[in-house]
Write a structure and sequence with these properties.
109 residues; alpha+beta; 2 domains; two-stranded parallel ribbon; 29% helix; 2-(3-amino-3-carboxypropyl)histidine synthase activity; DPH1/DPH2; 2-(3-amino-3-carboxypropyl)histidine synthase; DPH1/DPH2_1
Length: 109
């Protein structure tokens, strides 16, 4: 906020409210405070930006994980009965972790 105010000549409001992802970005409060832009640092938008009460800039985040550990854990868990080589496994993740899923899938196939 200090950098924006000092070098861009704009005023800033830091909203520290709890959000549970991009589905509950508090654009209503931002608009009520007179904000012209809301910057959301987190995962991707679930609400179409044209339906927001103020303009929103999403700064996407991807979290790196130890995929080797995940693969080893899955192999260990699914190598025992009643699972076998034909077991179909659904790999699901929140958007921050979705980037690793293709590599995990390829390693398990």
């Amino acid at each position: 906020a200090d950098i924006l105010e000092r070098f861009a000549g704009v005023s800033s409001v830091i909203m520290g409210d709890v959000t549970y992802g991009a589905c509950c970005v508090d654009d209503l409060s931002a608009a009520a405070l007179g904000c012209e832009l809301l910057v959301h640092y987190g995962h991707s938008c679930l609400v179409p930006v044209d339906q927001m009460e103020t303009d929103v800039l999403y700064v996407f985040v991807e979290i790196e994980i130890d995929t080797a550990h995940l693969i080893d854990s899955l192999r260990a868990a699914f190598s025992k009965e009643p699972f076998g080589p034909q077991t179909r496994l659904a790999l699901c993740a929140t958007i921050q972790f979705a980037g690793c899923l293709p590599a995990v899938r390829a390693a398990l196939e």
